[in-house]
User: Which sequence fits this backbone?
């Protein structure tokens, strides 16, 4: 049996499960940390059982005499020294990093009909988006605005200055190179926004043009490679805020974020990479040179052919991908050819929630 001695009193009391401390209807805490006694200490401890008969320990607190009942199983899992808990699903630790070869036998996909009718198929597909960064739904009805209905199967559409959805096709006076036939190298979308849209959907309505093939690169894998091959460059890209900006007649957006975002413990959590929207960095010359050398190095790495998964979207295909992790690309296409996708943004917290509830219901 593990000892309570190593547990800081404030931590242990903050986790008291009693009905005075947590609302039994929703599990939410009913007190502020500042309301606990300043001289809080464990008074007496004795072995007992929970109301459903599981082994437990009861703590009587000094100086206020409050009583807390902790299940032994909870103490085993949570006391200092227990194994680290699961992450929040967003960092490299919770992902399967990949190069193109990983999908030699096919990419994660499902047909629209089974995706809609079978919760297990839906769960597998959403799990692939979280774990691998993308999945493809096939045979989605080729219908105007259908991409919004796909997003609503797992979350909420993120409306932006582009509207609820954006048209990816050749436009006469494009405010973005995406709306021309130009080749687009691997990038993430909207790095000039904070928060950035965490998910993107691309629904193919027509793809009859010569060219216009799609590519995906795992940015977490690329960043991990950079960390292994050139730790100084990696470090630079996690530290230097990059001024991303977008402006057109009605809009002016900016966000200053590093190309490789890490969490407080240094794990890779977010990639922002888009050559079209990087503004002029203002730094001392030495730091600028260091940044540009690291930026170029990372850019070269992202273009390694073995990292890029290439495929071609057919009418009815809807690609769903993690815009904080995967970079997407397309080859040039003849502007005279017919190519039309509709895109939308959504968010990954909603998708993760939908998956968690699906799994709860499957138990
Ligand atoms: Zn309590």
Assistant:
């Amino acid at each position: 049996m593990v000892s309570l001695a190593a547990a800081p009193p404030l931590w242990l009391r903050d986790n008291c499960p009693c009905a005075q401390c947590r609302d039994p209807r929703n599990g939410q805490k009913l007190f502020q940390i500042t309301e606990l006694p300043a001289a809080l200490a464990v008074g007496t401890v004795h072995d007992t059982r929970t109301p459903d008969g599981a082994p437990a320990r009861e703590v009587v607190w000094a100086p206020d005499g409050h009583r807390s009942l902790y299940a032994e199983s909870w103490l085993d899992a949570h006391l200092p020294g227990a194994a680290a808990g699961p992450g929040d699903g967003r960092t490299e630790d919770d992902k399967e990093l990949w190069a193109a070869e990983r999908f030699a036998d096919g990419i994660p996909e499902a047909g629209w009909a089974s995706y809609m009718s079978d919760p297990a198929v839906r769960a597998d597909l959403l799990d692939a988006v979280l774990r691998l960064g993308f999945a493809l739904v096939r045979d989605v009805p080729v219908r105007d605005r259908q991409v919004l209905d796909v997003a609503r199967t797992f979350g909420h559409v993120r409306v932006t200055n582009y509207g609820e959805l954006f048209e990816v096709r050749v436009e006469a006076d494009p405010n973005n190179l995406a709306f021309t036939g130009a080749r687009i190298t691997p990038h993430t979308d909207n790095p000039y926004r904070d928060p950035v849209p965490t998910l993107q959907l691309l629904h193919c309505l027509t793809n009859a043009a010569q060219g216009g093939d799609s590519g995906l690169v795992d940015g977490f894998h690329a960043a991990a490679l950079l960390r292994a091959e050139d730790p100084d460059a990696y470090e630079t890209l996690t530290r230097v805020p990059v001024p991303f900006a977008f402006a057109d007649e009605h809009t002016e957006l900016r966000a200053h974020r590093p190309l490789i975002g890490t969490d407080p413990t240094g794990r890779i959590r977010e990639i922002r990479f888009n050559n079209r929207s990087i503004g002029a960095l203002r730094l001392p010359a030495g730091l600028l040179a260091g940044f540009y050398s690291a930026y170029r190095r990372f850019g070269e790495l992202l273009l390694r052919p073995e990292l890029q998964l290439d495929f071609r979207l057919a009418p009815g295909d809807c690609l769903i991908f993690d815009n904080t992790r995967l970079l997407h690309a397309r080859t040039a296409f003849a502007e005279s050819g017919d190519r039309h996708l509709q895109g939308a943004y959504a968010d990954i917290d909603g998708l993760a929630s939908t998956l968690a509830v699906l799994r709860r219901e499957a138990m």
